[in-house]
Amino acid sequence: MRIAVVGATGMVGNVMLKSLAERNFPLTELIPVASEKSVGKKVEFKGKEYTIVGLQDAVDMQPDIALFSAGGSTSLEWAPKFAAVGTTVVDNSSAWRMDATKKLIVPEINADILTKEDKIIANPNCSTIQMVMALAPLHKKYQIKRLVISTYQSITGTGVKAVQQLENEYKGEKGEMAYHYPIHKNAIPHCDVFEENGYTKEEMKLVRETQKILNDNTIAVTATAVRIPVVGGHSECVNIEFENEFDVSEIRKLLSETPGVTVQDNLDTNTYPMPIYAHGKDDVFVGRIRRDLSQPNTLNMWIVSDNLRKGAATNTIQIAEYLIEHNLCPSTTLS
């Protein structure tokens, strides 16, 4: 099992390598891939050094699976080239998510729709993944009618440049700006670029991707995405209107029985999800579960997860694990 990690030197790429090691992913050869400026440099994996190669060299090596986290333009250009030589690509960018011919996968929810013919598979946006992990079992039982979402997103979702900006501002130093405004002691209601409808791309990802993953375009979704000076993960306040009545205790029980979801919801001990505790973990944490008293059949929840783990690297790797387990990629098929 030959695995290429495209974007191996980036923030998500580093977490991918760490997660591959932690999960004892069954690879026989690692191929770290990055831009030309990084070719020839070394990365460490399980105590061994590997030399970074360029994209064309990686294609020529014909890996079984390529885990992409190198940006949309790179994915659009190179994912088809990998697929053409038989590699199965799992892409973490936004490039293929809303392509009608590509599947958008959260393994716990819809991996069963994957086939051997799927050579480019899309990984959802980080804020979408953590939310649908909590929503999927509830939608199945109570039928979601409408979602009102407010996100409080980590600067790590922007990348290394944003982390450096926060560190510079914290120390009172001048430096390169990832945002239009200071992020230290601030909240910026502007994640990604604005679309013509007045919403940002990040907000519209929550709309479109949620409907695609849950396979239900009737769900009404509106979102506001905010960047805050936090490193550990994304937080979301989600207001859910159901078609059917529910019992809050049943909601808690259902979520607590959902793989990959941890309920942290005890007001007596001030227990609720926070990024400081989600950092470095793969689960999605749910708390502040309570009925919306202003209208029928409506629930409020607070959802937190490490956006670099389940929101990106871990979900991508879980897709690859599913492909191997179910003989949906070249090496496993041949064996």
TrEMBL record:
Annotated binding of substrate, by residue: Q153, R227
Gene3D superfamilies: Dihydrodipicolinate Reductase, domain 2 (3.30.360.10), NAD(P)-binding Rossmann-like Domain (3.40.50.720)
Family named by the database record: Belongs to the aspartate-semialdehyde dehydrogenase family.
The species this protein was found in: Aureibaculum marinum
Protein name: Aspartate-semialdehyde dehydrogenase
EC number(s) from the headed UniProt entry: 1.2.1.11
Reactions listed under catalytic activity: L-aspartate 4-semialdehyde + phosphate + NADP(+) = 4-phospho-L-aspartate + NADPH + H(+)
Active site: C126, H234
Subunit (UniProt): Homodimer.
This protein's UniProt keywords: Amino-acid biosynthesis, Diaminopimelate biosynthesis, Lysine biosynthesis, Methionine biosynthesis, NADP, Oxidoreductase, Threonine biosynthesis
Binding-site residues for NADP(+), renumbered to this chain: T9, G10, M11, V12, K37, S38, N307
Described purpose of this protein according to its UniProt entry: Catalyzes the NADPH-dependent formation of L-aspartate-semialdehyde (L-ASA) by the reductive dephosphorylation of L-aspartyl-4-phosphate.
Sequence ranges assigned to domain Semialdehyde dehydrogenase NAD-binding in this UniProt record: 2-117
One GO MF term: aspartate-semialdehyde dehydrogenase activity
Any GO BP annotation: diaminopimelate biosynthetic process
Annotated signal peptide: none
Pfam families in the record: Semialdhyde_dh, Semialdhyde_dhC
Binding site for phosphate: R97
UniProt feature coiled coil, ranges: none
NAD in keyword set: no
Keyword Calcium: no
Enzyme class (EC, first level): oxidoreductase
Pathway: Amino-acid biosynthesis; L-methionine biosynthesis via de novo pathway; L-homoserine from L-aspartate: step 2/3; Amino-acid biosynthesis; L-threonine biosynthesis; L-threonine from L-aspartate: step 2/5; Amino-acid biosynthesis; L-lysine biosynthesis via DAP pathway; (S)-tetrahydrodipicolinate from L-aspartate: step 2/4
Stored SMART domains: Semialdhyde_dh (SM00859)
